[in-house]
Structure formats: C-alpha cells, structure tokens
Specification:
Shape: globular
CATH class of the largest domain: Alpha Beta
Structural class: alpha/beta
Distance between the termini: 37 Å
Number of helices: 17
Strand order of the largest sheet: 9-10-11-12-14-13
Number of domains: 3
C-alpha cells in the first residue's frame, strides 16, 4: 500500500501545479479525523485546497462537483464509482470500505482491501499518506488513533497500527472500557452507558457502592481516574463489575485496551475524543469537530457543550425506541423512528442496541429516520456472527434505485420517503427468505 501511496503523492503533486484541490470527507469520527490529518498535511505541503464535510454522496451532488479541481474523497466514494467515472477530472479516494464497482481510469484508490492488508481506518490511511509526504506530519498520529477507535478497529491491531501507536506515543492500559478513563472514576462509572453496568449506570450511589466493593478509596478529595489505578486496584474493579454483569459474553465485550493520547497538552482517552467528535457531527456541527481536531480552543469549548446536548438527545432517542412499536421477525427487528429520532443519531442508536443484551447474537437491527425528503437507514448485526447486513440492504435498495455503503456488520443507505412502505415490505421479504435459506 505504501508504494500506491507514493505513486499517488507524485501524481497529486504534479496535477496540483495546474489545478486546485477539493477534498470531500465523511462526517463521522473517522471522516473528521481524516479531514484534519489531510488538511494539515496539504497546508504544510503548500497546496491550494478547499474542504467539505458531507453525510454521504448522491448522484446529483457528484454531478455538481467542479471539474476544474482535483477531487479527493476521504472515508467515502468507494461505492460511487459509476457516478465518478463521468467526471472530467482526476479523482483520488482514500477509503477502507468495500469496492463493488469497476475502478474508472480517472480514479486512483488507496484502500487496504485492494492490497489485502490489515484493515485500517481512513484516518490511518490519511496518516500514512501525510507521513510519506513529510515526517513533519508525525504529530498527526494521535488523530489516526482517534479515527481507529471511531471505526471500532482497535481489537484487530496489526503491524501498521502498532507503528502508528508508537508514532502517537500512545499509552495503553488494559481494563474495563469505561470512558473517559481520564476523569474521576465515580463519575465515569455513573455516566457509563456503553458498557451498561446494572445498578451502577445512572446511579451515583451505585457507583460509590461498586468502588467500595472494589476497595478503591479517594486520594485526597477525589477518586483516581481509571488509567491511574494500580494493577491490583484494576483487578478488583474488574471482578466487582463482572459480578454485576450476568452474561459472560457481555463481560468479555466490556474489557479491552484503553488508549491514552496527548491532546490539547493533556492526557486524554481516545474513546472519549472519538465520541465527542462524532457527537458534534451528529448534531450538524462538523466544522466545530474539524476545528477541535485541528487544535482550535474556541472549537474545543463549543464541542464540549455540543457533546452534553448530544448525550441528552441520545438518551431521548433510546427511550423512544424502548417504548415504540417495532416490526419483528425471527432474528430481525425493524425500528421505524420516522421524525422522532434525528437522522444523524439513528445509526448510533442502532449500534448501541446491537451491543446491548436485549438482542441475541446474529439478530439484524435495522433503524429508519426521516431526513427531509429522504429516509436514513442504518443496519447492524448484534454480536459478532450473523448475516452480511450490507448484502441484505443491497438486495432491497439496488432494485429501488439506491446504493448501500458500509461493512458486513454495519451498513446504511438513503431511500426516498415515497418508497418507505415498499422498502419495508421488500426488506421483510428478503429477511424472511434469508432465514428460510439458513
């Protein structure tokens, strides 16, 4: 992949002497960190460029992109090649999603799937790109770690990510995945929603009781942060949490590596930073998220306020889903939230449900929410094993004139509102037929 990156850099360097660059990036945590890495690298490379953050790509949007610019897509566009081949300009795509269409002559793609390499998030690819341009960009490694966490790739660390972790001078602790691991433990436990700890989440008294059971006491006027615990204290805390969780599978999911990086001159939990960046974009403040990643202090203050508001929206959305009527079949559940849940949050809601003990392993969760005259559809698989949800959506959406993006265990698409009933009807047919096949 590094050879492909070097070739792409040479090509981009030559082309940029005649045309400016337009960068389009996805609006999730991986896309935002990709945009921050790439924009900083281009700035240091003295290239003329503009940046745009988008929820996704549609045919009309691509048609209207300027052809007097070089077009660069980050964390998207791998499934828009049929539209991009019509553009009369050079196109670069740095992405890690599946490629299902022929790559046109005007397009260069840097994607680990093409080289059959370890899975790397788009932020990781952008970091390798930036590092190859200049070692001055080594300070952007922390953003690549945040992008990795944002795309839940931290459990499959290979050679490439180990190098990026070293570049970022990442501190790694093993323990319960409660974040932020850099804040007092009593508050982190009380507000922990993923993982959910029965009797502790949402209860300050429950959090204090858990700490007493773990024999963890205050140091001065406050409790230690999770990452500050000794090995013995960490072991006692894990045991106390395990006793609260009845499912062995859930216990295994909530343990792992805690990644601590330097951000705004202090040690921060990469998982918390990823959640904050994601929250800003889901609340339609992608520019604030990008400014935060680039180190803007006023953006940091705004981002923290938006994060609080986002969590309130998320709690309301989860409450709505819990109380609403669902369309359920054997091994699938369809949640049609219509306009009761923000379209930018519905994917997060589906992800939380897929990691909850409510649904058994292999259950397909498909959630819908209105987005003006469109409907945002998010599909997830509960647990680690099950059908390819991207293929399931493809079977329904492609005949309706749409396209699907994502991965086998997490995918999404946009459909028009007028096809809502037809989409749900056809979706149920596919899900029921697939069940018969199994």
């Amino acid at each position: 992949m590094l050879n492909a990156i070097k070739t792409a850099i040479e090509s981009l360097d030559n082309l940029s002497k005649e045309k400016p660059i337009k960068v389009i990036s996805h609006y999730d945590a991986d896309g935002i960190t990709s945009a921050a890495i790439f924009s900083k690298a281009l700035q240091r490379w003295h290239k003329h460029f503009s940046m745009q953050i988008v929820k996704g790509l549609e045919e009309d949007f691509i048609k209207n992109l300027p052809e007097d610019h070089i077009l660069i897509f980050l964390d998207l566009a791998s499934n828009s090649l049929e539209y991009l081949k019509e553009k009369k300009t050079k196109i670069f795509i740095l992405d890690h999603h599946e490629i299902t269409q022929n790559i046109p002559e005007n397009t260069t793609i840097i994607n680990p799937l093409l080289q059959k390499r370890e899975m790397i998030s788009s932020a990781g690819i952008c970091y390798l790109f930036a590092k190859t341009i200049s070692r001055e960009n080594l300070d952007l490694a922390s953003l690549a770690i945040i992008g990795m966490i944002g795309d839940i790739l931290e459990k499959n660390i290979g050679k490439t990510y180990n190098e990026i972790l070293r570049d970022a001078e990442t501190l790694i602790r093993k323990g319960p995945l409660i974040y932020p691991s850099t804040r007092p433990l009593d508050k982190a436990l009380e507000y922990s929603s993923n993982p959910y700890i029965p009797g502790v989440t949402g209860s300050y008294r429950g959090a204090l009781e858990l700490l007493r059971d773990s024999n963890i006491i205050k140091t001065g006027s406050t409790y230690k942060a999770l990452y500050e615990l000794t090995e013995e204290e960490m072991s006692r805390l894990i045991t106390a949490i395990m006793l609260k969780i009845h499912s062995i599978q859930d216990s295994e999911k909530m343990l792992g590596n805690i990644y601590l990086i330097k951000f705004f001159n202090r040690m921060e939990d990469a998982r918390e930073l990823s959640a904050l960046i994601n929250a800003c974009s889901r609340m339609n403040h992608s520019s604030v998220a990008l400014g935060f990643c680039l180190g803007n202090k006023s953006c940091k203050e705004r981002a923290e306020k938006i994060y609080v508001e986002y969590r309130q929206h998320l709690v309301s959305a989860l409450r709505f889903v819990e109380e609403s009527e669902k369309i359920s079949g054997e091994n699938y559940t369809i949640i049609n939230a219509k306009d009761s849940v923000k379209d930018t949050i519905i994917g997060t809601v589906a992800s939380i449900l897929s990691h909850s003990p409510i649904y058994k392993e292999g259950t397909i969760i498909i959630a819908l929410a209105y987005d003006q005259d469109k409907i945002k559809v998010s599909a997830r698989i509960a647990g680690k094993q099950g059908r390819n949800v991207r293929d399931v959506l493809n079977q329904v959406v492609v005949p309706l004139g749409g396209e699907v993006g994502g991965h086998p265990n997490a995918a999404g698409c946009l459909i028009s509102k007028e096809k809502e009933a037809l989409f749900i009807s056809e979706l149920r047919k596919v899900l029921d037929i697939e069940l018969v096949k199994i």
